[in-house]
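Feature request disguised as a bug report, sorry. It would help if multi-protein outputs had a clear separator. Right now it looks like this:
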Amino acid sequence: MKRVVAALIVHDGQILACQRTRHQPMPLKWEFPGGKIEEGEQPRDALRRELEEELGIEATIGNEVARLTHHYPNGGAVELRFFEVREYDGEIENRIFREIRWVRRKELLELDFLEADRTLVQDLAAGKRL
């Protein structure tokens, strides 16, 4: 099973959402920034590394907000761990995504998120998490 970490970067009541490019798997879907945990890597360390690579920031990784497992129809499975990020050094820059956007909770529902993220997106929009 693939192990993945993602950040819920919160600023001024908004959450950062990122859109995949046309050339990535599941093209043009929206997601939260993050990525795969490498062998021997701790989840928070993996997320710090991914946020530096994708957005050019040095993040302070907060509490784990959610952990879920998603099984894709093709048989693949992923364990997702979402962490809160409210503090970081540096300016956010888009290094790999088609688009990045700060959105209010309810606006998350308007974006076409990855299937694995949708339950969390609904909880965030309803104010059940964070």
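(second protein starts here, but nothing in the output says so)
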Amino acid sequence: MPRFITIGYGDQAGYDRTPQALRDAAHRADDRLRAEGAMMGIAGPAVQVRNPQARGAETRDGPFMSSALPLAGFAIIEADDLAQAIEKVSGAPCAVADGVVEVWPLHEPA
């Protein structure tokens, strides 16, 4: 079955503005994804890693990507296709609490 990487962005203010019943439903949606085997996690502090021309690893604290909303978490989910993956994450906390969820098809090498 195809797999998808999801990246959730959201902040506490958006979460707090969302009615409790809707937040509870969003957390139940995440629980259903976990029950289907989704691997989920909350994003911690980022570290950039570079190794230019394999001359030695360099690190820098902080994310390389930037967004208007902070990165909240990641998941790897299974779905029949992109449309089903979108449907599955449309009820996730970041999607309903004034945030956003990106869905990226994961093309695994053969």
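Even a blank line would do. Unrelated, but nice: The chain has one domain: 3-43+68-106.
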